[in-house]
Amino acid sequence: MQHDAATAALSEPARAPHSGTAQRPSWDALPERVRAAIESRAGAPVVRARSQDGGFTEGFASRLELADGTRVFVKAASTSRGEHAHHAYRHEALVAGLLPEAVAAPRLLWTLDLEDWVVLAFEDVESTPPQRPWVPDELAVVLVALERLAEALTPAPEALLPLGTTADLDDDLRFWRRCSSGDADLTLVPTPWRHRVDELAALESRWAQAAAGSTVVHFDLRDDNILLAADGRVLVCDWNWIQLGAPWIDLVGLLVSVHGDGLDADRVVATHALTRDVPPASIDAFLVALAGYFVDAAGRPPVETSPWLRVHQAWYREATLDWLTTRLPRAR
To answer: Where is this region: Disordered (predicted)?
Structure first.
């Protein structure tokens, strides 16, 4: 699945590290009342805490070993430390508790609301994230898992409804249209693409309809939201932003990183059950919308609590535009 060297010419933009991207509080940094509530609910004192420092939110996320020999993975956030993480974790708690058993995801054990804190406890799964750059063997098992995931979430389980649709997200993915109308900063757009803004705007205007569907999609599926369990399972975590859409959305979104790492994403598109019958124009429209999002996001001011976020978004900007270079021939 390796690219031809000539087509893998993604210039090496800065890449966020595979771990260490999040600035999270340690167990000892949590307020005493929060630690006491967690230990009380877990049923035993915490004897060791291993912070999980991947991702880009500022919330607490640690694997906790308890005095009785059990383990639990705990996430916690407060409105005082970061409203984004608090909102995301609260929504994740709601979704995780409603996911069907057929969805391969860490099992939610319990939640706590403590003043301005929300706490989520999941089963602690012995696992590792996929390697980056992607390696073919690990990618292959993830691709199989994504097909099963789409099957389990199509049609959308009643317990998860109602949900937002791609049409509801259209206002968040319209950067090229804002550029075309003069409402966004054209200097954010890499020079080779500036003369094509009107064309990209037209493609972007079709994405919501092209990607519409009745599948519950994760809509933030990245390697750092995937766990390769020691028992062979492939688990998807961090279900914060689910939407209704086409069953191929998560696969195509994930393939941006596959292309950026030099593997043949177009071959996956052409052969995978979720994408092989999808009109190329539909996938292009979605990729154009994603590219616009990353161009816009990467140009925003740094986030003090997430120092690697803009680097991550800039890498995805370059990877998505480079993939579009091969899919929209006039950009060559």
So the answer is: 1-29
Which residue, 252, 264, 259, 177, is CA-closest to 219?
252
The rounded Cα 94 to chain-centroid distance in angstroms is 18
Domain ranges in the chain are 32-125, 129-331
CATH topology of domain 32-125: Phosphorylase Kinase; domain 1 (3.30.200)
- DSSP assignment string, 213-225: -SEEE-S---GGG
Task: Determine the residue type at 111.
Answer: T
- 191's CB contacts (< 8 A; 6+ apart) are none
Cβ atoms of 209 and 245 closer than 8 Å = no
- Per 3-state DSSP, the chain is made up of helix, strand and coil in percentages (nearest 5) of 45, 15, 40
Give the mean pLDDT per block of 10 residues along the chain (332 residues).
Answer: 40 59 85 98 98 80 97 95 84 96 97 95 96 96 98 98 97 98 97 97 98 98 96 96 97 98 98 98 98 97 84 95 90 38
pLDDT at position 81 is 75
CATH class held by domain 129-331: alpha beta
pLDDT at 113: 95
> Which residue in this structure is represented by tokens 């950026």?
260
Contact 34, 49 (CB under 8 A): no
The rounded distance, in Å, linking the Cα atoms of 271 and 1 is 12
Q: Is 15 exposed, middle or buried (0-12, 13-18, 19+ CB in 10 A)?
A: middle
Instruction: Say whether pTM exceeds 0.90.
Output: yes
